[in-house]
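Milestone M4 deliverable, item 7.
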Amino acid sequence: MSVPAVAPEEVDGLYEKLKREADAGGYHLNPDVEMTKSLVKGLLTNEKRYGYQACPCRLAAGRKEEDLDIVCPCDYRDADVVEFDACY
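Output delivered:
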């Protein structure tokens, strides 16, 4: 199965949306914009592949009902922030 390519404007658009949502929720995106945008591209790729934005730092099963815990923001975010002061 071929996954459609992610356009740079898709990455930029989702990045800006996530930045606004993170700031409003008291979170901050990683200041390394290039690295952060690569993760955003992974979210978009997973959305095209599976139909939902599975966190790109976790392995998705490809079945939403099995992956609900890793749909971004994943269930592990807050615990990772507490333990590591960041999620991936």
